[in-house]
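Sharing in case it's useful to others searching the archive later.

Someone asked me privately for the predicted structure of PIG-L family deacetylase, so I'm posting the question and my answer publicly. Question first, with the sequence:
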Amino acid sequence: MSSDSGPPSLQRRLREEGAFAVVSPHLDDAVLSCGRLLSENPGAHVVTVFSAGPSSVEPLPEWDAASGCFQPGDDVMALRAVEDDRALGLLDARPHRLGFWDVQYREPPERYGRLGGWRRRSRTSRARDARLVAAVGTALESLVAELPLRTWIVPLGLWHADHKCTARACLELAGRWTDRHWVVYEELPYRLEVPDEAAAARHAIESAGFLCRSTELASGESRKAAALQRYVSQIPCLGDRVEAATSGAEVYHELLPAGRPLTTSR
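And my answer, the predicted structure tokens:
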């Protein structure tokens, strides 16, 4: 793993291109992990994968109930989308939502661990996961083809099942869409909580046929903290994680072909 900083040309290229896309597993992840970058680059696009759920949620799953902001029967994800619009509007970012259901609505509680962690996965569950990765990849690929954006900034895929699914789909796209620039971000606050998993995920990317070159894309003061406050329903559950995401450095890695065939055996 190279620890050298990426070339200044990446920052310059982002400025010259005028817009780029950040792929976000959930409605708040882009701001949690890339809020400074978005603040410094108005006009960016944010593509949220798991942005939907049932129109009436009853009973409320653990996370929604703990927020204290929802009642049984609420269209929770529609209410959260309003918060997301406010946060991204503050950063002058353009939202796109793919409409996949958040895992807490896809899976029954006995198969879904608190905050998105997973218990042991059965063969049937793994097959279902693979189908979901393929579906997410197809939806993302349509946007990659449609939007006139050269740079796509995608999650490393830490801890949460939806993050891992999104990361796998993006990595497969990076292997096919080699005329696009691909950059990986380490999700906050997860990268602070599971550093060993972050290192393993970077190694998996290299095993899949890429080099990861660390690069600094965002620093200094920004509207990130103010934007995070727009996610009113998420703040009670995130707790101290909001401050960790606000004060923690945003970490990015430029993906470069390693000169060997790409595999996606992650």
